[in-house]
Design brief:
Helix content is about 30%, strand content about 30%. It has helices at about 20-35, 60-75, and strands at about 1-5, 15-20, 80-90, 95-105, 110-115. A hairpin with a 4-residue loop joins strand 4 (about 95-105) and strand 5. The relative contact order is 0.16. The mean pLDDT is about 80.
Length: about 120
């Protein structure tokens, strides 16, 4: 059993659990939106993506964000996924990340979109 993300309590008062593809999606979301230094025992965990929400939107910024996200996903989730493509867009104060990947366990290709606003 794996804990669901974000953490919540299930109907019977126990920790909610998740399985399969939902678990992999939760892992990706944690890497994307965790800032390095946020986790005590893993100070380099995360992508640093949230700091970009307030940066001026530009091509060089988008390119560096894509590289940072792809590198973080490959570093932390290489046992779970094969990253094929990452696209980062920032419009006003909303950050949207699209990740195309293959789940290693099932060889299923997936595309997930994640959004975050301050």
């Amino acid at each position: 059993m794996r804990m669901d993300f974000p953490y919540r309590i299930a109907g019977k008062g126990r920790t909610a659990a998740t399985e399969g593809d939902t678990y992999v999606r939760d892992l990706i979301e944690q890497v994307l939106f965790t800032s390095p230094g946020e986790r005590v025992n893993r100070p380099t965990f995360g992508s640093g993506l949230l700091r970009l929400i307030f940066e001026p939107n530009s091509e060089p910024l988008a390119s560096s964000a894509q590289l940072a996200v792809q590198g973080a996903l490959q570093q932390w989730l290489a046992d779970y996924i094969l990253v094929e493509a990452v696209r980062v867009q920032s419009q006003e104060a909303t950050l949207e990340v699209t990740v195309q990947y293959v789940v290693r366990r099932t060889q299923e290709r997936r595309v997930e979109r994640f959004r975050r606003s301050p």
